[in-house]
């Protein structure tokens, strides 16, 4: 039974990933979130037994909760963790220029996307190393692409720099983890119908009118497909939700 752990699973893309994974009876899913009492997760907990779904409280910005969550996961994953999906995210500063950016919030973006992610991954690495699949997948954004980012002005500057930092963490760390047989990939889930995605509709209509806004289900299906198909030889690649690669 492949095991999956998803962070930020209480709503949006994360919740949709959990829902889709549970449709496959061969999967065991560990859903983590700051609020495991969220309606969507509680509905799933009523539907699926404990040998299919586990809920673990986890705020990825709090070191003590990371340690506790990893300890709880260890108890229920004796054969290790096959798929680690780092999906939790923050909206950051949607607009504005670097001239008037709130630097304290900018620092939060950088810490969340780079430092907190390293801390989180470290805690779960022992379980990942024990598993058969050994896959780590980070949900990032095309806005973190240095190549593509320059073509999208005045949008989520702090968020974009934070995601670029996340991408480099995955790129550098993944090169090392490959030597242990661990596959690392970065994923852009698409422009999704979420609170964050809806907040940039006006900008998208002006600067990227050809880009479709997809549903959380389309995004989650894409993320799961990439997670299953990516191989060790393709490690440290940057994928779009449709399986195509994105330039760094």
Alpha plus pi helix count: 9
Low-confidence stretches: none
SSE string, helices as H and strands as E = EHEHEHEHEHHEHHHE
Walk across the major sheet and give the strand order: 3-2-1-4-5-6-7
How many strand elements?
7
* Percent in helix: 40-55%
SS class: alpha/beta
Q: Mean of the pLDDT scores?
A: 93
How big a fraction of the residues is strand? 5-15%
**Biggest β-sheet, characterized?**
7 strands, parallel
- Morphology: globular
**What is the alpha-carbon Rg in Å?**
17 Å
Cα(first) to Cα(last) distance is 34 Å
What does this structure look like?
By secondary structure, this protein is an alpha/beta fold. Helix content is 45%, strand content 14%. It has helices at residues 12-22, 39-47, 63-76, 103-130, 146-149, 157-177, 195-198, 201-207, 216-229; strands at residues 3-6, 28-33, 53-57, 83-86, 135-139, 183-188, 237-240. Strands 3-2-1-4-5-6-7 form a seven-stranded parallel β-sheet, with helices on both faces. Strand 4, helix 4 and strand 5 (135-139) form a beta-alpha-beta unit. Helix 1 (12-22) packs across helix 9, helix 3 (63-76) packs parallel to helix 4 and helix 4 packs parallel to helix 6 (157-177). The protein starts with a strand and ends in an 8-residue tail after the last strand. The relative contact order is 0.14. The mean pLDDT is 93.
């Amino acid at each position: 039974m492949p095991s999956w752990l998803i962070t930020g699973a209480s709503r949006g893309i994360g919740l949709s990933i959990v829902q889709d994974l549970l449709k496959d009876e061969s999967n065991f899913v560990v859903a983590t979130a700051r609020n495991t009492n969220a309606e969507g997760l509680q509905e799933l907990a009523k539907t699926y037994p404990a040998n299919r779904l586990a809920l673990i409280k986890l705020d990825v910005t709090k070191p003590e909760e990371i340690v506790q969550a990893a300890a709880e996961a260890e108890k229920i994953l004796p054969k290790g963790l096959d798929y680690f999906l780092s999906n939790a995210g923050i909206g950051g500063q949607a607009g504005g220029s670097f001239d008037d950016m709130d630097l304290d919030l900018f620092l939060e973006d950088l810490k969340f996307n780079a430092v907190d992610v390293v801390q989180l991954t470290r805690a779960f690495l022992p379980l990942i190393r024990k598993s058969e699949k050994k896959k780590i997948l980070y949900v990032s954004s095309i806005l973190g692409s240095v190549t593509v980012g320059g073509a999208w002005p005045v949008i989520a500057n702090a968020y974009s720099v934070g995601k670029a930092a996340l991408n480099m963490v995955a790129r550098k760390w993944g090169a090392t983890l490959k030597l242990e047989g661990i596959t690392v990939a970065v994923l852009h889930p698409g422009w999704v119908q979420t609170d964050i995605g809806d907040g940039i509709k006006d900008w998208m209509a002006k600067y990227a009118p050809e880009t479709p806004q997809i549903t959380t289900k389309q995004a989650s299906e894409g993320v799961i497909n990439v997670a299953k198909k990516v191989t060790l030889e393709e490690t440290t690649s940057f994928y779009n939700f449709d399986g195509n690669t994105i330039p760094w």
